[in-house]
């Protein structure tokens, strides 16, 4: 969403949060070494992943069981240090994994994400604190094998033929975000994508719009806040994101409570993208406000920032006719910004926008019909493809 903001100072690029020291692992520490060198404000929680890691690695010989507790029978024992593929996670933290032809559950207390990705240039040290010797510097964005995690959140990893420790504050278990232009996102076609932020004025209006969109072959992109999703779940018992996906519409992240993210640390930005927010691989910063800390937060959650290329400023004009005219002036490939609580979010407004665009030979993004693009409208996946089938 974009509201008018006063002038703000950006978060300083040199601000770096202190590293947690916690319990030391390994030999006695050497004399204090140079501090970890990073390029931007990065303080990311050791346990970032709200999605499932692709694989976990066992930190001890571990029983694979038929269910998600020790009450279930043992299927097979998995050797210490084995990376196994993950297909699910129970509410108590046990992972559903596969090994040696068996599928079952392992305790989350005895596994670690099999890989971590660095969020900036990061020193690998001989022990699990900043006072240990630097072995090598790992470049930003590098995915490295992880073997253990100390109680202070540091990970034991390998890189360039060496094994050592890196701070969990500077890595993520999320994969690298998808590659896409910031203003037009994964729409690589000549069609216009109509996007709507924030929260609808009522459940009935929301259902009406997404039903119309599905019936008339619109593929909208919706960006509800986490607070909005929570509100409708508690008051009406419905999940707006799930309703939209069921009608072939796309849903992206828009934070939990819609703050200007720039004054926040990378850790705080990441927290605003988790919790009750939409858990996917694309997100839109509130107000379109972006700096290095915001980028770090999105990267830490495996999300690509998707803003817009045409702003109707519907929140400002509060006029259906002006909003429709501005949206209908979009060029091929544009991402148009509107909001669910204003006048562009109605069946009639969508009808007018589509008709006016068609008069100029421009089409809107189509509802999702599956990977083959034919047949009936079907549910969209939670994660968007790198190229929308518009």
Given the structure, what is the number of helices?
8
How many runs of DSSP E, i.e. beta strands?
A: 21
- Whole-number mean pLDDT: 86
Number of domains: 3
SSE string, helix = H, strand = E? EEEEEEEEEEEEEEEHEHHEHEHEEHHEH
Oligomer: single chain
Spans of at least 5 consecutive residues with low confidence: 1-50
**In this structure, how is the largest beta sheet organized?**
5 strands, antiparallel
Strand order of the largest sheet: 6-5-4-1-7
Distance between the termini: 23 Å
In CATH, what is the class of the largest domain? Alpha Beta
CATH topological fold name of the largest domain: TIM Barrel
Secondary-structure-based class equals alpha/beta
- The CATH architecture name of the largest domain reads Alpha-Beta Barrel
Tell me the β content.
Answer: 15-25%
CATH superfamily of the largest domain: Glycoside hydrolase/deacetylase
- What best-fitting shape do the alpha-carbon axes yield? globular
The portion of residues assigned to helices is 10-25%
Q: Compute the CA-based radius of gyration.
A: 23 Å
Spell out the blueprint of helices and strands.
Blueprint: E1 55-58, E2 62-65, E3 74-78, E4 83-89, E5 95-99, E6 102-106, E7 111-113, E8 115-118, E9 122-125, E10 134-138, E11 143-149, E12 155-159, E13 162-166, E14 171-172, E15 193-198, H1 203-215, E16 221-224, H2 226-236, H3 240-246, E17 250-251, H4 266-272, E18 282-283, H5 292-300, E19 304-305, E20 310-311, H6 314-317, H7 320-328, E21 335-339, H8 347-359
Parallel strand pairs: 15-16, 15-21, 16-17, 18-19, 20-21
Antiparallel strand pairs: 1-4, 1-7, 2-3, 4-5, 5-6, 8-11, 8-14, 9-10, 11-12, 12-13
Helix pairs in contact: 4-5, 7-8
